[in-house]
Amino acid sequence: MPMAARPPPARPHIGINPANRFSSYSVAEWVDDDAWDSGSDSESPTKTAWKRQASTSTAPKAVPRTAQNNSSSSTLASSYTHLHAPSPSSYPPKFEVQPPRNGWTIVNKQGGNRRNSEVHHDTESIQEEAADVELEGDMVVGELDPEDPEDVAAPLTVSGKPKPDKSAIREDVDEIVNDPLHLARRSPKRRRSSRSQYDSSVHEGSEKLIRERSIKSNRRDKFIQCIIHDDVDMAQLRKLAWNGVPSDLRAVAWPLLLGYLPLPASSRAPTLVRKRQEYLSLVELAFARNREGLDQQIWHQIEIDVPRTRPGVKLWMHGSTQRSLERILYVWAIRHPASGYVQGINDLVTPFFQVFLSAYIDSDPEEFDPSLLPENVLNAIEADSFWCLSRLLDGIQDNYIATQPGIHRSVKRMAELVARIDPHLESENVEFMQFAFRWMNCLLMREISVENTIRMWDTYLAEGPDAFSQFHLYVCSAFLVKWSKKLREMDFQGIIMFLQSLPTQGWGDHEIELLLSEAFVHYSTWHNAQSHFGK
């Protein structure tokens, strides 16, 4: 049975005092809410009223979902701003790809996010090809193959909007729901390449591509052999996961690494059935009396923050996704009265939800509407996301209790560590609390994309249960030192503005892996040095 709900402790108000060095701050000196970067606590004037909320019931027996209502989602999402950032959002913006025109697709090859320059291609198998081809300006990708349903533009309604397309849903969703090992047994789907990829310049690097694909295939085979074993070798799984988990296996590898799924194969399916039913029971109990039975302080903040989660990303603007997120956050909050709900926890749900959603579809999860899924599938995604979030937060809960001692401790240690790695930054009088609070509170999710975060969490989960507090400290330090040269050329205000709106929009796995490697070097050098942190 869940713990009795009661109002959470008052959340500390965080502010900025540029006149003081980091070492001189005290909790009493923080007088406003800027460092949270979650917008104002006051209700948005465009926030939906409870009457509308009731029509898309959040509560209900068996976690009902209704048709999405996005009339105000984009308006609410756009209100999520950072007071100091020059961009209108504190999240990395998502590049938009030009829509297909007359069977052709215009692909921007000048800068930007490489992921979005590879339309209709398997990013794991084709990304290297795109990197090897030097092109000027825009590239026209050849006529789309009508035999491949993924390459056919979605039919339009009279209003000009695409009709809901369920073709992206895998045919084996029931098998995946009932048997987690089905993810390891099935063959990964390979999308066909368009004709432009048979250009002679690509053929020149074919040997390199074949070699790289062979390496990836071998790594995937090793993952499968590890996962389907009767009793998973956790040490081997962590060793494999450190360098990244194949995208189609994350939905089974992550729960194993988090301890949500048991290591013996025979226990996994029964555990999933039991835990998913337990979550549904918690939801039914929490929302049994609709709004009247909710903790109003917790619900009010969740109701404000959910529409602000990942603004501009279609997945998180759909009503069905937002209802799931509301339930996950509220149930977690009432089960953890020491912290309740704290702004920033909403961000931590998004990687789990997208990873589990990806297991059931063959398209970009950020573009998918979960309301198209069968109810039992969406229930499973929601429950699995909840339990994995709970496992993650168990290790960093002191980041979210009253006065947030975990975050203050981590920021202090980061300042001391950076002073040893790059003393020049200390001479710039950088106020770490002005930017690093958010880095710790949201685990860098406001600085990089969800895709980047998912790759980073592969390594965090491989590092073990303390990685989200201990190893993350070294990742943040390496992240700051990466910008050291630019920061030395800026004044105080420029430094703060830059650090709150970093140019990471084009980052892919390569940049994240370099960052993780640098962090590991610092971790190996300093973690066991007893005197490198102040007492």
Automatic annotation (TrEMBL):
Residues 183-194 have a biased composition (Basic residues). Pfam families: RabGAP-TBC. The lineage of its organism: Eukaryota, Fungi, Dikarya, Basidiomycota, Agaricomycotina. Residues 115-124, 201-211 have a biased composition (Basic and acidic residues). Residues 34-125, 143-168, 182-211 are annotated as: Disordered. It comes from the Eukaryota. This is Rab-GAP TBC domain-containing protein. Coiled coil: none annotated. Signal peptide: none annotated.
